[in-house]
Each structure stands twice: as C-alpha cells, then as structure tokens.
Write a structure and sequence with these properties.
89% helix, mainly alpha, rod-shaped
C-alpha cells in the first residue's frame, strides 16, 4: 500500500504541475491574443492612413503637373512678348 500512496502523491504533484503550467500558458495565450488584437487595430488604422496619404499624394501630383503646365505657358508668353535684344557689336 505505501507504493500506491507514493504513486498517488506523484500523480497528484504531476497533475498540479501540469495544471499550473496550463494556467500559465492560458495567461500567455491571452496576452498574445490581446497584443494581436491591438496590432490588428493598429494595422487597420495605418492602412486607412496610407490610403488617405496616397490620395493626397495623387492630388498634389496633379496640382504640381497643372502648375508646371501653367508655368510653361507663361514662359512661352513671356518669350513671345520679349523685345528682340540688339546684337552687341564689338
């Protein structure tokens, strides 16, 4: 009978150790799930920001293109209205 009591005690200790380990792993899992949710929310937020910035960048590119085109037109007008410079004779 003493060996049965000893075996029971060893099994009880192993059960307690395994339960403690299981609780620890469940806590770690909960922490990781919380971090995952936080990262997913952050990722969603950053994705929205990227979309907004991409749209703004596209708008700014269009503005720059239009300004460049207007600048070229104004230069052509200025060149057309510029009086001919006399040649310098030495």
């Amino acid at each position: 009978m003493p060996s049965t009591s000893k075996e029971f005690q060893q099994l009880s200790q192993r059960i307690v150790i395994n339960l403690a380990r299981q609780m620890e792993l469940e806590q770690q899992n909960q922490v990781l799930e919380n971090k995952t949710r936080e990262l997913e929310l952050r990722s969603d937020h950053l994705t929205k920001e990227i979309k907004i910035l991409t749209e703004e960048n596209t708008d700014l590119k269009e503005i720059v293109y239009e300004l460049h085109r207007e600048n070229q037109q104004l230069r052509k007008l200025a060149d057309a209205n510029k009086p001919d410079e006399p040649e310098v004779v030495e």
